[in-house]
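Section 3.1: Structural characterization of target chains.
Under the original work plan, the team committed to producing a structural model for every single-chain target entering the pipeline before any wet-lab resources were allocated. The record below documents one such target. The sequence was received from the expression subgroup and is listed exactly as submitted; it comprises 512 residues.
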Amino acid sequence: MASNTSNYKLSVGAANLKYNDILPYKTENEAQTREFLQKVVDVLLDFIKSTNDRNEKILDFHHPEEMQKLLDLRVPDHGVPLQQLVNDCATTLKYQVKTGHPRFFNQLSCGLDLVSMAGEWLTATANTNMFTYEIAPVFILMENVVMTHMREIIGGSWRNGDSILAPGGSISNLYAFLAARHKMFPNYKEKGIATIQGQLVMFTSDQSHYSVKSCASICGLGTDNCVMVPSDENGRMISTELERLVIDRKNKGHIPFFVCATSGTTVLGAFDPINEVADICDKYGMWLHVDAAWGGGLLLSKKYRHPRLSGVERAQSVTWNPHKLMGALLQCSTIHFKEDGLLMSCNQMSADYLFMQDKLYDVKYDTGDKVIQCGRHNDIFKLWLQWRAKGDDGFERHMDRLMELSEYLVKRIREQPDKFYLIMEPEMVNVSFWYIPVRLRNIPHSKHREQELGKMCPVLKARMMQAGTIMVGYQPDDRRPNFFRNIISSAAVTEKDVDFLLNEMDRLGHDL
């Protein structure tokens, strides 16, 4: 296993070689180069095996000051031998959290899809930028095909729109904001804030991802002008409150221009009522963006798409992260626009040393001038390869399975009301609940009891990490103290893992 560096001994001929002895690639050391790379692959394959072994811990936890003593993280004056590099790889993975472990329920992005992983390996080897067709011809065409297919899945007239892969959902949401402002004020790009006579205002749910509010800060609106719309008990935006707040800001002379509806909130997994929000956007001339970074995968499920994402085709832009529910490796985030050409119009800088118009091929395939990055990582190959492996029907089965497992968790929680308290019926794979230790059982539920249950969450989470057997996230919200939020987004999870989760929480926490 990756914890034992003695398993990765290089031969005498390779062990003491250094980087400069084999790279740039040298024919005379071909055998040693292959041996070095094969040992690194052995480390990776053993980590994959360990990740999928339920008898292995999810993590070997140490506090930061202890971890510093266990690791040699120095940057040396002189390069270390190849054997030390192999050992470093093994040690690194020994102390890394196994986010692909079937009993890791902590994050929205978890699991280890082997085909997507293989795609990431090949991507790293190709090591190319995604800004022009001339240096990434296959990947650029691949991106066009997959993004078009994703827009077709969104529906309506989206097929002829435009899309791009971005470094995470936060940047995808920023692209939507910039495009919306550019659409309403096309001179802003050159003239700046002087082109706007009045205060721009944006609206989003009080349960939305913080990156939406961050757009107001980054782009000069100020966070006070990102209006947080109240949500109901299940975390969905209240559309009547949205309209009330829009009217209030208009009466103050402000310019409402952008609304973000969330499809799959981070904590509760709630879906805002898109059609109701779209009606208000149409009425007041506002841009509708749907942040489906988390919930977008359900677009692939006939069973679960409606009513959660009904109306998504009415939006002007949609964020959708395949690295979340679909299980593509980090990072893999997409932003889609109904209108073609808007990305280019909004972001184009016409740098003639990269985006010449007299190249030998059709320059419409160059993507670099329509994004705010220059260097852009190739995030498409792993997704394309994964989609080739699964097909639409495979992804549909994957989405349905994750939802069914979450429904099973809800069922098991309900069967043990003395040990667990389900906070609400979930819309997605986010299952929110409290664990009830022995001393708080057989006590009527009340605000005081909630406070006591909330105090237990960080203590029980600490025990989970020290045991290394399960990981589940916890957090408070504006209505309640700390509670557990369990996420099932890994294809490796089974009903037995769900049962183990609940039993292990009780084993670790019954005496709290």
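The two ends are 35 Å apart (CA to CA).
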